[in-house]
Amino acid sequence: MSVSKADFLDAVSTELAHVIEHRVSTSGSDRMVQMWQRIGRMIEGGKRSRPALVHLGFRTFDGRSDAPVVKLGCAVELLHTAFVVHDDVIDRDFIRRGGPTLSAEYRDDALEMRQNRRDAEHVGHSAGVLAGDVLLAEAIRLVHESVRHEPAGLEIVEAFHSAILSSAAGELDDVLFATGVGDPNLDRVLQMHRLKTAAYSFEAPLRIGAMLAGAPSDTAAQLAEAGAHLGIGYQIIDDVLGTFGDPDASGKPVDSDLRERKFTVLIALLQDIPEAEPVVRAWRDGEDPIDVMRTALTTYGIEQRARMVAQLCCDRARAGLETLPLTEQARAEFDVVIDDLQRRGA
Question: Keyword Magnesium, does the record have it (predicted)?
Fold first, then answer.
């Protein structure tokens, strides 16, 4: 495929605008028109990193120029947006990227209608659930529509569905770990990250892009496995930034994960230090304030330890890519992806 990455991402943004415009014009109520308009504003200006991975997997295996790769990239972006909206509800966050979430917009509407704060927040979260649901439905529809006549169409649909189910399983683990259910450790948290984040953000985009281009199933699976390691590394760095990052840069409060008692890689690493384990236990039981945990994380150098685990994930991804018959250009592009991940928030 001769289309450059920049042109591809421009085409994805154009197609996404058409999807939103169509839904705005065909929605059955004024309220749904407003919701789709808000969704449209939410997806404007995104980095499109997941569609870019669809494009990379597709180009790696020299996909034909008339394949519906743009629509497939749009579906992946809509899926990501759905999970972002749902994640904000689950985490009870009203700020993302320094601005109000979709839930916050509906909360503020309710406050203007003189609802009390508790009821207004319920309205906001309810709207967030519904917005995520319609985005999931649209993403699934778009995948079916775009690949139904493709040789690997059924496999692509199955891979897309699998990513949704995996992410739900990982999100459930995340929620339950935060409530004290189960006995999480580093291995279980890494598996949670693979399910929740890597499956839909890295594995599926690379896999379905490769399959659309005609790559054999086992080769596409190898590429997806390398993507899994990248996705886990990405989420580890996200955990680091969620606690130690600059909120002005990340757009996320640095006390959110600690406040919600989320069992991240940072917590798992701290728990493995015998002297710090009682601090972790007290924090999980709600006995210690979050500044005690932050002090412990700093004292034991957990940020640096977490970045080392992320580095190991990147090394494993590189090793997996070495076994694939990639062109030099494709290898160079994967190197850029890995390098960007390692520099993220550094």
Answer: yes
Residue 53 lies in a domain: no
Q: Pick the more confident residue, 268 or 287.
A: 268
Q: What is the pLDDT of residue 280?
A: 92
Residues 300 and 339 in one domain: yes
pLDDT digit string, tens, across residues 294-323? 999 999 999 999 999 999 999 999 999 999
Alpha-helix residue ranges (DSSP H) falling in the chain:
5-26, 30-43, 49-60, 69-91, 102-112, 117-147, 153-178, 186-193, 204-212, 217-244, 247-250, 256-259, 265-271, 277-284, 290-299, 302-322, 328-343
**Are the beta carbons of 17 and 40 closer than 8 angstroms?**
yes
* DSSP letter for each residue of 126-164: HHHHHHHHHHHHHHHHHHHHHHTTSTTHHHHHHHHHHHH
Q: Give the whole-number percent of the chain exceeding pLDDT 70.
A: 97
Structural domain harbouring 4: 1-46+68-149
Q: What is the pTM of this model?
A: 0.93
DSSP letter (8 states) at residue 97: T
Check residue 138 and give its pLDDT: 97
CA distance 162 to 168: 10
Determine the residue type at 77: E
At position 297, the amino acid (one-letter code) is L
CA-CA distance, 339 to 346, in Å (whole number)?
Answer: 11
Q: Measured between alpha carbons, how far is 128 from 134 in angstroms, rounded to an integer?
A: 10
User: Cα(8)–Cα(26) distance, rounded to whole angstroms?
Assistant: 27
Domains in the chain: how many in total?
A: 2
Phi, psi of 113 (to 5 degrees): -90, 15
329 and 209 in one domain?
yes
82 φ/ψ sector (left φ>0, alpha ψ -120 to 50, else beta): alpha
Give the C-alpha separation, 265 to 244, whole Å: 13
Domain closes at, from 107, 128, 149: 149
